[in-house]
Amino acid sequence: ATLQNNMRMLFIISFLVITGCTSKVKFDKNKWLVKDDFEYPFREAMIKDLTINHKLKGLSQKELSNLLGEPAHYADDQSHVYYTIYEKYRWNDIDPVGGMTLVFAISNDSSVLDFKVNKW
Length: 120
Prior knowledge:
This protein is α+β, with helices and mostly antiparallel strands. It has 4 helices and 4 strands. The protein has a 4-stranded antiparallel beta sheet. The chain is elongated. The protein starts with a helix and ends with a strand.
């Protein structure tokens, strides 16, 4: 009976790990804005829902900021805004070695023309 219980527990734990890692989270502005030290712990899980189920094209830059908060940075010519999803660092380095960014192309009238998720 103990072996059966151990096997059952192993199956349950494996199932939870697999489904927990692949499940996506619905976009939630409050969770999107959470920043823990230098990380945004919820953004990667919400990015799919945000980009598929929310109308982002056509938003004004002000509406975009109301939805997602202030961007991490702007292009010098203000043609793009960038939101950090995550960044990866080596343990002993201050420069990121990879990451994911949500990039919005902004028109001359300050509305969203397009967007893309940039993994680097």
